[in-house]
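Backbone-to-sequence.
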């Protein structure tokens, strides 16, 4: 077995974990969720969910990861097998490699859009609308920008197959090359160095954009300034607290924003030292992510949309989803302000670095599996992942509906299932007291005992409620889809999952002879 790497510094570890968590969802998904679910009222269940769902699961995944790392395992199959001596454990752990790999396949492609659009902004390649903001509706004003995005990804073609523009391939392979170059350098030499550079730069760019947004002047209403725009998001409508939909949305956002249930956190945590203070490190990681999301994520996109389009227009923009907000409305807003080309460039470059740090985190579980369970070298493991990735990426790139289908099963539904299984195995099967000892060992802060009961009882129950509610709300609609692209995507996912089962069987057969 190869000697397992370790993080070179504590700050590098925290920044890498923060880079895993801070991604496109902080700046695109969060403002949409907040705007659609009552603004300020959304923040109350959001912070409650952070305490009873986010922090407990973060500590559990750090504890699971460190426990596995000291036993030579950095992925869920090996770690679950060490925690629970049952032949099913390693097969349940397949989700910890399968889910991040599926997300990686489409997430890298989206990340490449941000790099391409940063240059589109800098070079002012966007079309100029023939209509005036305030006189025309947001839909009319944004139509040319929507067309630009749809042409770029090839979504304007008929039939189930998309045909992206040639430049989309160029930026995709540039993004892919940067990602795998970083991964080839290893944990401390690649991922940690990227995080030390990218995360501080990301915060600087976010701060510059924050200042520009709060000084933005409305082309529609001279009295619409930043203070009034902030009220759109922060004035609470307390009646929203009685809506189960708002609570589920808040819990879901906490789940996504902290990258819980993916398998990447426990893989990163497997490279920490035996007595690392994972309690403080986990809390620091979660806090950095929340700062980026609540301060910058809630301001840049939504506040600028309110100033530019007004309250009703911002609601219309937010209702179109994260892609409409980030890739369509933001270029339109930047195109109307002085030096907008530069600020648009900063916006998409910020998204690129947020996405890139998440891409390398999503890649590491598969690489760690090849290294730990097959005994492969870093170079061979990275090459194997690249081959699998290149063979798989045509699904989200060319198949209409493929990206959304993959995101539902891997990026939404599967995450909750894996997180629930983590809690059951660690806090119930392995033994809750031993699990608590693992989480608190080496801690320089006192972890309140109440979190023990949250981890064992409250958080699992919360996850069951989310799973049932999401299944009731979304599964019938998803399963009702019948077009050819959807079935092609499902066939791909099934085949990829079977490949994971065969890989697990091969790895354990080699170990047991």
């Amino acid at each position: 077995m190869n000697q397992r790497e370790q993080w070179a510094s504590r700050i590098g570890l925290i920044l890498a974990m923060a880079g895993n968590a801070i991604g496109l969802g902080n700046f695109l998904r969060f403002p949409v969720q907040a705007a659609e679910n009552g603004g300020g009222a959304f923040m109350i269940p959001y912070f409650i969910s952070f305490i009873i769902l986010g922090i407990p699961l973060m500590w559990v995944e750090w504890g699971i990861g460190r426990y596995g790392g000291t036993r030579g395992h950095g992925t869920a199959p090996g770690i679950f097998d060490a925690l629970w001596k049952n032949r099913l454990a390693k097969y349940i752990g397949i989700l910890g490699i399968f889910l991040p790999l599926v997300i990686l396949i489409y997430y890298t492609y989206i990340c490449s859009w941000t790099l391409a659009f940063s240059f589109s902004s800098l070079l002012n390649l966007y079309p100029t609308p023939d209509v005036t903001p305030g006189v025309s509706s947001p839909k009319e004003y944004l139509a040319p920008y929507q067309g630009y995005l749809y042409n770029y990804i090839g979504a304007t073609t008929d039939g189930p197959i998309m045909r992206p523009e040639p430049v989309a391939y160029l930026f995709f392979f540039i993004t892919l090359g940067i990602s795998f170059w970083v991964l080839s350098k290893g944990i401390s030499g690649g991922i940690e160095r990227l995080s030390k550079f990218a995360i501080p730069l990301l915060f600087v760019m976010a701060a510059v954009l924050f200042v520009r947004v709060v000084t933005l002047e409305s082309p529609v209403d001279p009295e619409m300034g930043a203070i009034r725009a902030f009220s759109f998001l922060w004035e609470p409508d307390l009646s929203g607290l009685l809506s189960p939909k708002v609570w589920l949305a808040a819990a879901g956002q906490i789940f996504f924003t902290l990258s819980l249930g993916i398998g990447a956190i426990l893989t990163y945590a497997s490279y920490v030292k035996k007595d690392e203070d994972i309690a403080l490190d986990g809390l620091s990681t979660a806090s950095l992510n929340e700062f980026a999301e609540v301060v910058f994520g809630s301001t840049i996109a939504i506040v600028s949309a309110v100033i530019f389009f007004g309250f009703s227009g911002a609601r219309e923009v937010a209702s179109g989803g994260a892609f409409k907000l980030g890739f369509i409305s933001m270029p339109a807003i930047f195109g109307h302000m002085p030096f907008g080309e530069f600020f648009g460039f900063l916006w998409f470059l910020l998204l690129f670095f947020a996405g890139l740090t998440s891409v390398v985190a999503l890649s590491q579980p598969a690489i760690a599996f090849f290294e730990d369970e097959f005994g492969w070298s870093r170079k061979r493991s990275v090459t194997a992942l690249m081959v699998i990735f290149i063979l798989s990426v045509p699904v989200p790139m060319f198949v209409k509906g493929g990206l959304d289908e993959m995101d539902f099963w891997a990026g939404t539904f599967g995450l909750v299932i894996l997180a629930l299984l983590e809690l059951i195995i660690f806090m119930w099967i392995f033994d809750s007291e031993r699990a608590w000892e693992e989480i608190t060992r080496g801690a320089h802060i006192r972890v309140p005992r109440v979190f023990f009961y949250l981890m064992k009882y409250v958080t699992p129950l919360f996850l069951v409620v989310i799973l049932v509610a999401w299944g009731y709300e979304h599964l019938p609609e998803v399963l009702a889809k019948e077009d050819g692209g959807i079935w092609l995507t499902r066939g791909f996912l099934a085949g990829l999952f079977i490949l994971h089962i065969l890989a697990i069987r091969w790895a354990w057969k080699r170990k047991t002879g």
